[in-house]
Amino acid sequence: xxGPLPNGLTNQEVAALRSILARIPNERSPGPxxxxxxxxxxxxxxxxxxxxxxxxxxxxxxxxxxxxRIDQCWGERQLNDPTPSEISALVEQIRASAVVRSNSRGGRxxxxxxxxxxxxxxxxxxxxxxxxxxxxxARRVAxxxxxPSNRHALTxxxxxxxxxxxxxxxxxxxxDSLILRLHIETACRRGGALGLDRADLDLDNCCIRLTxxxxxxxxxxxxxxxxxxxxRHYEERRNNGGDTHLLSYRSGAPLTSRRYDHLWQRLxxxxxxxxxxxxxxxxxxxxxxxxxERNFGYAIARAYAGHSxxxxxxxxxxxxxxxxxxxxxALSSLSGEPHPxxxxxxxxxxxxxxxxxxxxxxxxxxx
Length: 367
Prior knowledge:
hpI Integrase, Chain A; mainly alpha; DNA polymerase, domain 1; 16 helices; DNA binding; 3 domains; DNA-binding
């Protein structure tokens, strides 16, 4: 049959169309993987390794476990492969598999950190020119809404119980009590205490230099007795190998976060409410800052905490900004000791038992 077909096409035209259609699968537009190979877009596995050495240590610790999960699921895929719906599915998968603890909130934290870990990767990819900002799929996935923190200020009785059990148990009560007093007096974060160096002590002005979250640096007033304890601790335990870390174990090795973990685990075994509420060092920060705010006002509490941003205080914070002298005045009242930066003002001191550090370093083994 050589005449026209019912649709008006001849056999020759049909054969030509079939020939064209046969070649289309090999000439179609490349998919995401092909584009990635052609443009040099790396796989998740390769790019995670690249980004992990480019971020700050704190970000690396936060995102590392989530990057491992992403690597397990998508390690061989190019960055430009996943869609927002695939990312959402991965987030829900990680949320469902999150470890359930006494303070868990249905995997919200795991889901939030997964999205943040992916956004971190894609932010670097955009900056490196690997993908366009408009093509970042992680930005089109919403983070779970963060619930208010359960942390709050401890009562005087609760704080006294923590100090009492810290100084009467464990294999290094001097170190544990020194840690607690440092955090109570300064409201510093754990990273600030761990990063202290001998050069961070200002003996004349009775201050310590804290390097904390986001690389912020500030001089924080401490009581004269606290400063003497820190100096004595350093001199008795310093490592002759040249390490100048301020806080250290009996061996001279620098203090690590593991000591904090063991401390609160031990306190949790002796104080059930500590275990039930998952009390940690950060609760001491809440306690001190609440006391400062109640007695000296919001502006001084912000300065005491080392907060410098205006996102939570509005424009008014520009006009009521407190300085180091205000912080020293609050610290003097808290500790009941005069401070060299201010006149001798000792109103509203805390009970001595909360700030007590036992003399000597006699070892007390846990029962």
